[in-house]
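Slack export, channel: ligand-projects

TW: morning all. Re-posting the request from yesterday since it got buried. We need the structure predicted with the small molecule present, not the apo form. The ligand is adenosine-5'-triphosphate; the SMILES is in the block with the sequence. No rush, but it would help planning for next week.
GE: picking it up
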Amino acid sequence: MLTKEIEILDSNGLHTRVAAMIVNKASQISSKYGAKLYIKKEDFTDWLGISMLALISLKIGTSEKLLLGAKEENENNEMALNELISYIDENINNSPNNSISMNKIDKFIEESKIVTDQIISESPIGIIVIDLYSNIININKYALNILNLKEEETLGKPVNKIVPNSSLPKILDLKCEELGKILYINNKTCTINRSPLFMDNEVIGAMAVFQDVSELVGIKEVNEKFQKILSSSHDLICFVNPDGTINYVNPAYKKQFSINDMLIGKSVYDISPNGLRASALRTKEKVENILHTKDGTDILTTVEPIFIDGVFNGIISTSKPVNEIKELMSKLKKSQEELDFYKDELLKHTSLKGSFKNIISSSKSMADVLFICEKAAKTTSTVLVHGESGTGKELIASAIHNNSSRKDKPFIRVNCAAIPENLLESELFGYEKGAFTGAVKSKPGKFQLADGGTIFLDEIGDMPLAMQAKLLRVLQEKEVDSLGGLKPQKIDIRVIAATNKVLSEMIKEGTFREDLYYRLNVVSINIPPLRDRKEDIPLLVEHFISKINGHLSTSVQGINNDILNQLQAYSWPGNIRELENIIERAINLCEGSTLTFRDFPSYICTALDESITSAPVNLIDLSNGDLLTFEEYEKQIIQLAMKKYKSYNKAGKVLGLTHRTISLKCQKYGIEKDL
Ligand SMILES: Nc1ncnc2c1ncn2[C@@H]1O[C@H](COP(=O)(O)OP(=O)(O)OP(=O)(O)O)[C@@H](O)[C@H]1O
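GE: finished. pasting the full token output, ligand included:
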């Protein structure tokens, strides 16, 4: 680079007039020598093409140096630079024109330039000016702030290096302006106008004017969201100006009062002068009230004053029909009740599985039984288990014992029906040596053996009346008198009794003591017969196959579906014991790995599902004088419908109930869909 320098001696530095003189002369010299000349201030690194804007942007003061340069070192450039230096020396540094009048003119020009400079510099919008070479020759404070740069880091630099992808250079070619474009700088959103700068119809540079509108964009976004909230809200919303004119009502408001936009602009003082809105406008305080409309809807209205920077800006009223809330509350309450019900059911199933896991069941009725068993296991109260033969009374009794605090003490079973009447007393209470002929040594009774543990009095309904009286004494006094014993012996036992007889009937007949019945029936457990909980059958079958495989060392894998359906159709008079025996028999007969029809007796293979065939006749059976609860009838009807139609929809249609009601009731009563 060929470089020359010259000190500017003009008392005003390189001001506008002298800049114009230099530019003018430089242009003549350039064409004379075919030279391209550049300027630069001492401490600036980049060279600028000679132009008014560039020269002024250098802001060269008195005694500061102006550097002149040309890219190539040749004779023409050398001469061109020398001629320009001489011109500045003679016509500016040692100007004969530095007369008082010229000084005044310069002062006016400078004053106007300073004002313009200040306007640009302090302007609350960003301004960037480039010269014909796309170098930045002017940039104001606002623009520097947005770019986060200092002036010296930008001046003289190609604008594209400072603002990547700037379209400003394009404007120099297009020679026309571009308005209202969006530019993203440093995470800010700016609107930008770009225009070419002309002198004598020639483009001499271009200017970008831009403004950060990120905040405005944020406000727009909030506004959009707010509009959405207002239009989708179910609350009735209304804005009222401080003078009482309504300026907005949302769609819910219009719908509720069947009105259109005609309401906008009307005064609340005219529409409802004594209303809540008028009152809040007068007092500028929040008011709340429930309004009863003509159509019977109760509307809860809240009117709040709006203050912006402490200045009252009107009111906003929000109303909601309370009936809807009441409805929602009642729906919520219903859902909560349903939830509680299912939680309870879940609890029954899940919490019991661990402690009563040898009792196989999936039915709702057995879940209820096990729920009571679990509670009974936590107390020492006497339990009376009722159920047909083979339903699992003994299993339940031992499970209660095994889950109680007495589990490490004896569980003694007495079958009251199996012991001859004359031996029952000595069996239960024991005898002392010599108490009767043949009593060569003392023998403890079952009560003494069960001391600290549980005595299970099976078939209690078969206990002779005389023994019932003695048993009652044991239960009351908690002591036993052995035969031939001198004094009663204290015992600590828990009694679980079981029967398949209807004790209330026996009391009527005088064969069972009423007082004993009440002593025994503290906790009452009714085990349903298997025919009433056929949904347990698949699980029980699976359980017995694996149990019996273990005993017989067989390896039956499962059961054919058709015969399983048939097992569910059979009425199981012998209950689970009968099922267990039938499975054992089938396993013995089975030749393959799956139980099929051949392995079962013909009366099971041909059994008809009695709950379908007989239920309509027996549904309301007053022959024994008893009516069932409404729920029990409901359960039976739904069970029947599900058996017949096998779908909630069809069953619902026939019964005049919805699909959902049927499904809920099936869950409630433990009715399986694919019965
Ligand atoms: N829920 C069940 N899960 C698994 N096995 C069961 C179930 N219920 C009963 N059993 C089995 O069925 C058989 C009969 O049960 P249990 O002897 O307890 O009936 P029971 O009602 O006491 O009969 P009974 O009145 O004739 O004395 C037993 O082998 C028992 O293990």
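GE: first-pass observations. The radius of gyration is 53 Å. The longest helix spans residues 322-355.
TW: perfect, thank you
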